[in-house]
Amino acid sequence: MGKVQITVAVARVLREFLAEPSEPRYGYELMHATSFPSGKLYPILKRLMVVGWLIKEREPTAAPEVGRPIRSYYRLTPDGTEAARYALAELSEQISPPLLGSLRPNGGLA
Amino acid sequence: MRTVIVAVLTAISTGVLGAGVIDMCKDETKTRIGRLPNFLLKLATYWIPEGDRPEFADEWEAELAFILQETEGLPVTRLIRGLAYTGSLLVRGAPQIARYVRAETALAGRPARRKDTPWADLFPDGRQIYYEGDDPDEFRKEIKARFGFDPALDPCWGEEPGWGSYSFHCPVGLLDDIYGGPNYPMGS
Questions:
Q1: Closest residue of A to B105, CA-based?
Q2: Do A69 and B65 touch (CB under 8 A)?
Q3: Distance between B50 CA and the closest CA of chain A, angstroms
Q4: Which residue has the higher pLDDT, A102 or B154?
Q5: Are B79 and B36 in contact (CB under 8 A)?
Q6: H-helix or E-strand containing B15?
Q7: Which listed residue, B21, B42, B62, B136, has the most CB atoms within 10 A of its CB?
């Protein structure tokens, strides 16, 4: 399992996947969910595929039934799900604001 | 009187013909503008290295077809969404993906090549390659039986235990069968 640099954009895409880890997600649907244009989204999906966090599959519907070409969708791999959760938790920890001070009970030291 | 009738008929014919031509021009313009997203998408796919192009072209074409199908009967929305999808891919997405694809190919250790180019054309003197599987003896026996070539006769074969010990020079005539074939785990 490879590593990927977690930028804010990557984190946003991962968050969408983690909302329903087993659900397949289409590119156009992800564009709506993240508000990313196709030119920003697809390179991120490709990066996540290169490191093995995502897999791309073709929808099972036969083309003539839907009257258009068969679409491809993306899904988190089991390892990808774990790695994505860890990466987001790590990112969240890194960007959370520092504590303003420590607390102690009134009238005592501990 | 006759001249007047001819003039009137000519004017009517010209008017009808003119209106028809104008309608045809409008239809033609509408159709060509409607195909603009598909044209941009085609251009975008040219960024992707040839061997990997069909994978991306198929995916994007299907997605564009879905977008266009969703906005059936709304020509302006259809055009705007289609252009937004394909234009963004053309100027940003496809070039970036092309870079990843090239980097991936380079990392895999095999040079980018057209899918229909034989390995023998790329390496006319043969190539030193590594067997990377778990059973070098079985591999050796199979290659010997199938191609009459024994990789173990190469002085580099089994030279030292561990990584890289099962290297051999593959003759040009067998490169496509052994190195290019899907049957054997090979590195180079």
A1: A50
A2: yes
A3: 17
A4: B154
A5: yes
A6: helix B2-34
A7: B62
β-strand partners of B186: B131
Among the ranges B22-31, B57-66, B142-151, which has the highest mean pLDDT value? B57-66
Identify which of A50, A39, A48 has the alpha carbon closest to the alpha carbon of residue A13.
Answer: A48
Shortest distance between the Cα of B187 and any Cα of chain A, in A, equals 19
pTM score > 0.80 for this model? no
Interface residues of chain B, partner chain A, Cβ below 8 Å: 58-59, 61-63, 65-67, 69, 84-86, 88-94, 96-97, 100-101, 104
Q: pLDDT-based confidence at A69, cuts 50/70/90?
A: confident
Q: Which of A26, A38, A56 sits opposite B89 (nearest CB)?
A: A38
* A29–chain B nearest CA distance, Å: 10
- Amino acid identity at B75: P
pLDDT single digits (tens) B35-84: 899 999 999 999 998 888 888 999 999 999 999 988 888 989 999 999 99
Q: Contact A27/B59, CB-based, under 8 Å?
A: yes
What's the pLDDT tens digit per position in B147-164? 888 888 888 887 665 555
- At CA A21, angle to CA A19 and CA A25, rounded to 5? 85
Whole-angstrom distance, CA of residue A34 vs CA of residue B21: 46
Residue type at position B82: G
The closest alpha carbon to A18, from A5, A37, A33, belongs to A33
Which chain B residue has its CA at the smallest distance from A30's CA? B63
